[in-house]
Structures are given as structure tokens and as C-alpha cells.
Write a structure and sequence with these properties.
The complex is a heterodimer of chains A (309) and B (620). Chain A is an alpha/beta fold. Helix content of chain A is 31%, strand content 15%. Chain A has helices at 16-34, 46-59, 78-90, 100-105, 122-133, 198-207, 271-280, 285-289, 299-306; strands spanning 38-41, 68-72, 95-99, 137-139, 156-159, 187-190, 219-226, 229-232, 246-251, 264-265. Chain B is an alpha/beta fold and 620 residues long. The chains are: A alpha/beta (309), B alpha/beta (620).
């Protein structure tokens, strides 16, 4: 149909990134208005950094009205922990740590050996952390473009009192009318950046000049290539027998358990270069960097059902 | 830099190639990653398929892959240098109407697929109806698998015409068609060399260019308060900001505003965004408003203009889609209703009818609604809602119903208008606080201040002639361009104002008189009244004209001159069929006369777009 309406000035249109920002802020405010005790998961990874940045914007000039929780595997990149602590003190946040290591030490979590990936074990620490804190809403930085089970996730995602997800019985979600109703012991996982893609995240963080842990940008590191992943050689990843490390320019696309997170070869030392690389990459971030998501076609779905984020 | 975000809802029947089309869009815009492709190739091979099955990309859950079906709405993302696209891919099975409704609720554009070999199916009509019901502003019908019909233009034309005549019965404002082969890539991203006869854009070009900025309501200022920000810090001790998302109109610093339900007024002192104060805020911005006066404002309140308020009512009529598999609609049980940022207790007072989405038949005897059913209901809430009709604002016109026993979202609804039968005491807070007195405003002052001017466009013609379709499009166009306009539809008014009238000669005359009065009053207030009414008698129409002339208000008689045979062929309400079957009498053109206007200001062109332009042309 031919346009008969008069054109509006460009001033009343938002860019795609500003639209995403507005939608995410709406979700975050909705949670704080409707829930008694929300908490935001924060790993120091770029998605959680984005989420926290949006939360700060949502309530400015007031401080963020909820604590953040780090589910700590004990297998950390030191740069990320340093970053986490700096962010917490800069913005006056309250940090809760749900420690996998403590639960291993106390016998709550049994591990095969010290250096196996603890991604799976995070579920126990996370669910206990939620229960102990009495949280009724838990913000997570999951994005639907990350993985096919996540593509089916709601923004407000109901969890029963065992923290489990029932993908076949999700609440319909229409317009921006979110249904967060729940009983005592149940909680809602909230994914305010569901509709952001990896490239959106990078473009926005660059636009906003948000600080990230330095390992997200290209740097020189001792790595060894294992099953297609570039693994940093350190206390969590000893050099496999008969292999020698090489110094390469690498960066991380995701930050997870240090025993299972690989780096990618990269020369991208700043935001502009990372965006160029991200726009051109032909491999998903999880496929490129996460050993644990490669186990089976339904690895993520299974972990999510058990309560993983 | 990309400028906009476009949300697409896709729908189609089983095997019409929807997943292949999405796969093609993702693939050809380089949005599929190699490891994803590799993974689906391995799975395809395991199942003995020769080609990688692109449908596997969207089937995210184990049960979906195992059963080879799509259960749930899947979201897919791709981008071109012009736009970012979010696809809500909804399964086509009949039982998943609710998923289609979910996907369509936020979509700017609905993408429907038909198989060129099969043509328009029941499912196609169902999906078009749902898109129309959910007011998805743009609809594109892709005629797929053109490669299997030798790229035959005649087949495409036939499907296009068939769909057009069905769509004419719905309220679809923008309809596009593209002949494609998703498998071969014809007209998806690149123009097809196999269909030189097609002079339109390939699908992706259409998706990149379709104009969506005017789909928002930038006229009626609406700001539901979501959360009150009170920092209580040293630095911001007196800060009291009302946070929320603008869902209608353009708010400017200094604007006079009214807060509902208190009806207190103030001025906007400042509009804060996370990046500092701004001069104006518009949908979908998330902002924080500071008012000049200290008013008691909390979550669930609505900020609007004193001169342009939403309806405030405890009763309204709406269409709902039932979602819950284990329960059916009850008229004797309480529900929780969420509307903008308010939760209220609600009861469904009456099921007016159940809509058969395939035949558009209204079943007045239906007793309940079950999963995937759609029907019209009357709802009563414990406290007033501040709403607009859904067709004017998707945010202030929508709601969900939640069953307090299970906390599940059992239905989603779209508001048609305020309700309240005689005697039930429509309890409007406006009524409580208003006393009537003569206006102190002259028309010049009124129209000048509102920067508008009233008029009445009176569309007369047979039932099924297309009056309402033109009226709807004219109304939409006027409102989008910032003018006050309101459609007065004969059928709609017979639900309320004229519910006591039948179809006798006297009743028809009274019907015309009342609608004429309402139109004149609205026009006096500065609105363009667009009347869509059969109004068969010349004498009654002339009386309305005379009343307008006396009041000095422009009156345009528009004759929608569709021949009886064509109206009867369309028969959108099934009236002609009933009249011919003897079930109803007095149908204009069949059992009752129609007096065509002798000298109307306009006789509309049969083509909808032209007709709309002609009507708009009257207003200058």
C-alpha cells in the first residue's frame, strides 16, 4: 500500500540497539516491581556485564536494588575475579558467592578428579545459593541465539521448587505482559537479554564504552591446541604429555570454567576489532570455546532441565 | 549503522517449507554458523537424509527433533546492513494456535506461506485471521515451491486473488505477495531469473524496506507507571521519578499531564533516560518522568494528557484466545488479569460468542472456550483499568488472564471497547468526578489549541461493499499522521448505543439519526468521524447532512458503490446467504430497498488503496 501517512522525523525512532536496551530495561524494572527478593547472576562474562550495566541504567540515579550472585567454580581466570571485585566495589554492589569449591570441600559435591570441568556442578551451587538467599527471581544472561534449547526459552521462565525447567509446559508470553506469579519455594528465571545476539552485545558494549575483563581482547598467552580448542596452559589445564605450549595472540569469546573454556586466535585488541571479527566469524561462540556443550545435541537442554542457567 | 528492529512472526502449514525458508534467509544472510551447519548435517545423515535439513536449525528441543515437529515458538535472529530481524517461528499445527498468537503479539510483520501446488488452505486462512485479530500491521504471503509449478505466473495470480478476496473480509492494512522457491532461493534474497514476470521486490528487500515507524501510536500519550525510583541518597534526596516505558504518543518536557486514577494534573519537569535528560520520549523508550508537583503516584497508575485520556472502566468487551489445555473458560470463577503494569481480580461475565476461525462464523450458543478457541467476552474487573481499544494501541489494549489456582497464563485478550449494559452501573471514575456545564470554548479555540479540525465522512453502501475496510484504513492513516479520527461502525454501534434497535424502517431511521448525532458531536470536538453505515434511505442521510450544515461542520457523503452481485459474492458476514435461505428478512438489497445517493461528494474506486486515497483527498 502506498504510504499516505506523513513521514515522521527521524528523531522519534530508536536504533535497533536502543530498542533492545529499552526492552531489557523494561523487563528488569518489571521484576524489581513485582518480586520480593531478586538476585542477578554475575560471572564477569560479557553477557553478565551487559546485564548489570542495563540494571544500573534501569534504576539510575538510585543504586541497583538487588544483590548479584557469582556461582564460583573455583576454576577461574584471575583477571575475571579481579574484574568482578572491582565492579562490586566501584558500584557499591552486594556480592553473594555460591561456591562449588566449598561444596566439594564439605562433601556436598563429589568430583571425579580435581581438574574435571565443574560446569555441571554449578547447578548444585546455584540452586542452593538461590534457596539459601530465599530469592524468588534470578536474572540470567542467557541469550536465545546462543544455543537451540535457549531459543525456546521464555523471558520469564518458571522453575519448580527443585529448580527444574519443563520446556513443554512453558507459560505463553505475549506483548510485554509477563506472568511472574509463583508459590513459595518456586522461582522465576528472568532473561532480560534474550533477544540480543553476540554481535549486538559487542556493538552495544562498544557504544557504551563498558569495561570488560582484559581476556576478552587479544593478548599473548601460552596455549596448546586440544581437539580444536586453544587451551591456556595454567594450574587448571596442565600441559598434555608430549605437547609443548606455544605463545599466540588469543582472546576469549566466552568466560566459563577455566578447564573447559578455550580461546580463539585473534588480533582484536580493542572493541572495534572485536566487532569486525565477530561480524565475520563463522563459528558460534559456544562451539568455538566450550568443550562442555559439545557432548551431545541436547547437552544444554538436559542441563537446563536440571536447573542450570 | 542499522537503524531498526523488525519482528517477524512466521506461520504456515505442515510441509509448506517454512523452516526451509527461514533456513534460506539465515543461510543467505550468512547468519548460520559453520558448526551449526555441521551439526545438522550430521543429524540429517544419521536419519538417512541426503541434504542438510535446515528445519533442524529451528527445532531446538529433543522431543521436536525426535518427532520431527516444532512444538514451541523458536526465536531466530539475523541482520542485514539495514535492519536487525527477530523471527518468532511458530508451528503450523492446528493445535498450536496459541503459539501463533504469542508470536504475532509483538510482530511488526506476519509472514505466511502457502505451497503453490496446494494454494490457500484452511490453515492459511486461520493464520491470516489470527494476524488480523492480533493487528500485525503488515502481512506478506509467500507463494512457495514455485519451482514445482514451473514458475507459472497464472498459478501465482490465482492464489493471490483467492487470498486477496479472503483478506478483504479481515482487517489487514498492508498486504504483500511474493512468489518464491525457498529451496532454490528464488526471490528470497536475490531476484529470481525464473520469474521475470514478477516485478516486485524479493522477500528480503521487502522486509528491509517495509515502513514500520508509523505503526506506533504517536498520538495518544500513554505512560503506565512501572516503578517509582527514590534513591534516598545524599546526592538525590528529593528525587522521585516515575519509571516506565512509553506506550503511546510523544511526551515532552513541560507538557501538562494527568495521572490516573487520581486525575491530578501536573507538568513534566524532566524526562530522564539512563543517558541523561531528554526533551521528548516516545514508544518504546524506557524513561523516568519527574513531575513539577508532588503527586501520589505508584505502580499501575497511568500518565496521559488531560485532554486525551484512555477509557477508565471496570467493564469492557474483548476477544480472547484460550491457551490452557487442562481447564476451560469459566464465567463463575475469578481470574487474575494483567493489563499494562496492573494486576486486578477479574471475572468473565459472559461469553458473547465463539469465533470459528475458519468460517468466521460466530457461535452464539457456545458455552465455553477450550484450548486454542477464540471468542468474544464481557469482562468485569474489581478496580478500573485505563485502556484503549486494541486496534488503537496494542499495549494499552491487551491483557492476559491468569488462573489463581495454578498461576498459569490461561488466556490472552484484546480489548474491543468499554462495556456495561444498562443497569449494571458502568462504574467509571470519570463519571464520579464530572459535572456538566456549558463549554467556554469556541470551536476556533478548541480546534486551534488541539491543532486539529473536525469533519464527518459518511460512507454509505450495501452490506459487504467494503465500507468498513476503507473506513478502517482511512482512520488508521489519519491517526498515524497525527489527526484525531474515529470510526463509527454501524455493526459496532449496534452492540451498544443502538442495541435496542432492529431493522424495521423506523429503527433504521433512528439508527441513522443517532449515528449522525454522535458523528456531529465528535466532529465538534475536533475529531474526523468516519461513519460506516448502510444507511439505505436518502431522506435520513439528508437530515444528517442538514444537521451538520447547520452546525457549520464539513460533511462528506461517500458512496461505496459495489454492485450487489459482488457484495453477495464476498458475503463477509454470511448475511446474503441467510437472506437467500429465508433465515433473515429486510436485508438491504435483497428484501429491503437501497436508495443510492443522487450527488455524493465521492464515489469510491473499487481498488482499496485508491479508495482510501480518494477519501483522504476529501479532507485536503
Amino acid at each position: 500500500m502506498e504510504e499516505v501517512t506523513k513521514a515522521r522525523p527521524a528523531a522519534v525512532e530508536l536504533t535497533d540497539l536502543d530498542t533492545l536496551e529499552a526492552e531489557s530495561i523494561h523487563i528488569i524494572r518489571e521484576v524489581v516491581a513485582e518480586f520480593e527478593n531478586p538476585v542477578m547472576l554475575f560471572s564477569g562474562g560479557k553477557d553478565s556485564v551487559l546485564m548489570l550495566h542495563l540494571a544500573r541504567k534501569a534504576f539510575a540515579p538510585a543504586p541497583v536494588p538487588f544483590p548479584i550472585m557469582h556461582v564460583d567454580t573455583g576454576h577461574n581466570f584471575p583477571e575475571v575475579i579481579e574484574f568482578r571485585d572491582r565492579v562490586v566495589s566501584e558500584h557499591g554492589l552486594r556480592l553473594e558467592v555460591a561456591s562449588v569449591q566449598e561444596r566439594i570441600d564439605s562433601g556436598r559435591i563429589k568430583v571425579g578428579h580435581e581438574l574435571e570441568s565443574r560446569n555441571r556442578h554449578q547447578t548444585v551451587a546455584l540452586l542452593e545459593g538461590i534457596q539459601e538467599g530465599g530469592y524468588d527471581a534470578v536474572f540470567g544472561g542467557g541469550r536465545r541465539d546462543e544455543e537451540k534449547a535457549r531459543a525456546k526459552e521464555r523471558v520469564f521462565s518458571f522453575r519448580d521448587k527443585f529448580g527444574q525447567w519443563d520446556p513443554k509446559n512453558q507459560r505463553p508470553e505475549l506483548w510485554n505482559l509477563y506472568n511472574g506469579r509463583h508459590r513459595k519455594g518456586e522461582h522465576i528465571r528472568v532473561f532480560p537479554i534474550s533477544d540480543w545476539t553476540e554481535l549486538d552485545v559487542w556493538r552495544y558494549l562498544a557504544q557504551e564504552q563498558v569495561d570488560l575483563p582484559p581476556i576478552y581482547f587479544a593478548h599473548e598467552r601460552e596455549v596448546v591446541e586440544v581437539e580444536g580448542l586453544l587451551m591456556a596452559v595454567n594450574e587448571f589445564f596442565p600441559l598434555p604429555e608430549g605437547r609443548s605450549p606455544e605463545r599466540r595472540m588469543v582472546r576469549y569469546r566466552t568466560v566459563g570454567d577455566a578447564t573447559a573454556t578455550g580461546a580463539v586466535a585473534s588480533q582484536a585488541t580493542d572493541y572495534g576489532l572485536v566487532i569486525e571479527e565477530t561480524a565475520a566469524t563463522r563459528i558460534t561462540e559456544r562451539g568455538a570455546t566450550r568443550g562442555d556443550d559439545r557432548f551431545s545435541e541436547a547437552a544444554m537442554e538436559d542441563r537446563k532441565k536440571e536447573g542450570y542457567f | 549503522m542499522r537503524s531498526e528492529l523488525l519482528r517477524i512472526a512466521t506461520a504456515g502449514s505442515v510441509d509448506d517449507g517454512k523452516s526451509t525458508l527461514i533456513g534460506r534467509l539465515l543461510h543467505d544472510t550468512k547468519s548460520i554458523f559453520e558448526d551449526q551447519l555441521e551439526s545438522i548435517e550430521i543429524t540429517s545423515q544419521k536419519r538417512g537424509a541426503e541434504q542438510a535439513d535446515l528445519a533442524l536449525l529451528t527445532d531446538g528441543l529433543r522431543a521436536e527433533r525426535e518427532q520431527g515437529i516444532t512444538i514451541d515458538v523458536a526465536h531466530r535472529y539475523f541482520a542485514t546492513p539495514k535492519r536487525k530481524f527477530v523471527i518468532a517461528d511458530t508451528p503450523g499445527h492446528i493445535q498450536y494456535t496459541r503459539n501463533m498468537v504469542t508470536g504475532a503479539s509483538t510482530a511488526n510483520l506476519a509472514l505466511l506461506l502457502v505451497d503453490a501446488r496446494k494454494g490457500v488452505l484452511e490453515q492459511t486462512r486461520r493464520h491470516a485471521l489470527l494476524s488480523s485479530l492480533l493487528r500485525v500491521p503488515h502481512l506478506v504471503l509467500c507463494v512457495n515451491k514455485m519451482d514445482l509449478v514451473d514458475y507459472d505466473e497464472a498459478i501465482y495470480d490465482e492464489i493471490r486473488e483467492e487470498f486477496k478476496s479472503f483478506a478483504a473480509k479481515l482487517e489487514i492494512t498492508d498486504l504483500g505477495f511474493v512468489p518464491i522457491s525457498a529451496l532454490e532461493g528464488d526471490n528470497v534474497v536475490n531476484r529470481s531469473l525464473n520469474m521475470p514476470w514478477f516485478d516486485g521486490q524479493p522477500l528480503l528487500g521487502h522486509l528491509e524496506d517495509v515502513h514500520i515507524a508509523s505503526d506506533r501510536n504517536l498520538v495518544d500519550n500513554r505512560f503506565p507507571v512501572q516503578y517509582v525510583i527514590r534513591p534516598q541518597t545524599e546526592e538525590h534526596r528529593d528525587y522521585r521519578g516515575f519509571a516506565g516505558s512509553v506506550v503511546g504518543g510523544i511526551f515532552k518536557q513541560g507538557d501538562e499531564v494527568m495521572v490516573l486514577p487520581s486525575r491530578r494534573t501536573s507538568k513534566i519537569a524532566q524526562i530522564d533516560t539512563p543517558d541523561g535528560a531528554v526533551a521528548q520520549a516516545f514508544p518504546p523508550m524506557a524513561v523516568t518522568m519527574l513531575l513539577e508537583d508532588e503527586l501520589d503516584v505508584s505502580r499501575g497508575d497511568m500518565i496521559c494528557r488531560p485532554t486525551n485520556q484512555p477509557s477508565a472502566n471496570r467493564r469492557f468487551e474483548g476477544m480472547i484466545c484460550w491457551f490452557d489445555e487442562t481447564t476451560t473458560l469459566r464465567t463463575d470463577a475469578p481470574y487474575q488479569l494483567k493489563h499494562t503494569s496492573r494486576w486486578v481480580a477479574a471475572e468473565v461475565e459472559d461469553l458473547r460468542y465463539k469465533l470459528d476461525v475458519d468460517t468466521l462464523h460466530r457461535d452464539l450458543d457456545a458455552e465455553t472456550l477450550a484450548v486454542n478457541d477464540i471468542g468474544r467476552v464481557a469482562i468485569h474487573t474489581t478496580s478500573p483499568l485505563f485502556f484503549d481499544e486494541y486496534r488503537l494501541n496494542r499495549n494499552t489494549g491487551s491483557f492476559i488472564l491468569v488462573d489463581p489456582a495454578t498461576d498459569l497464563t490461561v488466556a490472552a485478550g484484546m480489548i474491543i471497547g468499554a462495556g456495561g449494559e444498562a443497569g449494571t452501573g458502568t462504574h467509571s471514575i470519570v463519571a464520579e468526578n464530572i459535572t456538566f456545564h456549558p463549554s467556554k470554548l469556541s470551536r476556533e479555540e478548541r480546534w486551534g489549541t488541539l491543532d486539529t479540525g473536525g469533519a464527518t465522512i459518511w460512507m454509505t453502501g450495501l452490506s459487504g461493499s467494503g465500507k468498513s475496510t476503507i473506513a478502517t484504513a482511512v482512520e488508521h492513516s489519519l491517526v498515524s499522521s497525527g489527526r484525531f479520527a474515529y470510526m463509527l461502525d454501524g455493526d459496532n454501534l449496534r452492540h451498544g448505543l443502538n442495541a435496542d434497535l432492529g431493522f424495521s424502517e423506523e429503527d433504521r431511521a433512528e439508527n441513522v439519526r443517532r449515528v449522525g448525532e454522535v458523528a456531529r458531536i465528535l466532529a465538534e470536538a475536533g475529531t474526523v468521524s468516519i461513519v460506516s453505515l448502510v444507511s439505505p434511505y436518502a431522506a435520513e442521510r439528508d437530515k444528517v447532512r442538514a444537521a451538520h450544515e447547520e452546525a457549520g461542520i464539513p460533511f462528506f457523503e461517500v458512496f461505496v458503490d459495489t454492485p450487489l452481485e459482488e457484495c453477495e459474492r464476498r458475503d463477509p458476514k454470511g448475511l446474503y446467504a441467510k437472506a437467500r435461505a429465508g433465515e433473515i428478512t429486510n436485508l438491504t438489497g435483497v428484501g429491503a430497498p437501497y436508495e443510492a445517493p443522487a450527488s455524493p461528494q465521492l464515489v469510491t474506486d473499487p481498488d482499496l488503496e485508491t479508495a482510501v486515497r480518494q477519501v483522504l483527498g476529501l479532507l485536503g
